[in-house]
Amino acid sequence: KPGWGSTSPEKTSVRPGRTKTSPKKKKAKKQHSDLSDKQAVDEPSFSKAYADLCQRLQKKSSQRMEENEEVVTPVSVTFRKLLLNKCQEGFEKINKYELDIANRTKEIEETPDPEKKKELKLLLDEDERKVRRKSVGLVRFIGELYKLHMLTPKIMHGCISTLLSQVAEEPLECLCTLLTIVGKELEHETGRREFDEYFA
């Protein structure tokens, strides 16, 4: 299936003579997108600031592509594409985290040794806190990127549908966080009817 980075908030045509991105620049863009994504996720209270930073980096990346004189036909790798595909990878892991926690919980319940059980439970609680913080941070960051028009309404509705299909506590917390950030603007863009269908 296509990645989030393959979609654009605005329909644009690919002009002949699109600039080429060198391997060195591709690596630099990937490092920037990885770093921005990690910091935004690990520090949820700064999600908006990091989203603003990513938008500025994307604009600079686009300007440099326009100024580059080396011309080829294929579409170049952009900062936005790398960043959004990274966000997509993280979002798709939310459900996998829940499955992992469920499996580990079952393992703890089946452990006969009380001391071992206690140790495993402490490790699970710590990992669960980290995962929850990371998941909520990622969803906040995704929401802020949408508000800056770096993500489409279609992607947002896809995220909402995915989170609604989960029954665990963490995805529901992520859903509440996402709706708090993008709900008003998304409803304005796509209409109330789409939201009503979620809760019909």
UniProtKB/TrEMBL annotation:
Superkingdom of origin: Eukaryota
Bias (Polar residues) ranges: 1-11
Basic and acidic residues composition bias: residue spans: 31-41
Ranges of compositional bias, category Basic residues: 17-30
GO molecular function: mRNA binding; translation initiation factor activity
Pfam families: MIF4G
GO cellular component terms attached to this protein's record: eukaryotic translation initiation factor 4F complex
Tagged with keyword Magnesium: no
Region of interest (Disordered), ranges: 1-43
This protein's UniProt keywords: Initiation factor, Protein biosynthesis
Residues covered by the MIF4G domain: 11-200
Protein name per Swiss-Prot or TrEMBL: Eukaryotic translation initiation factor 4 gamma 3
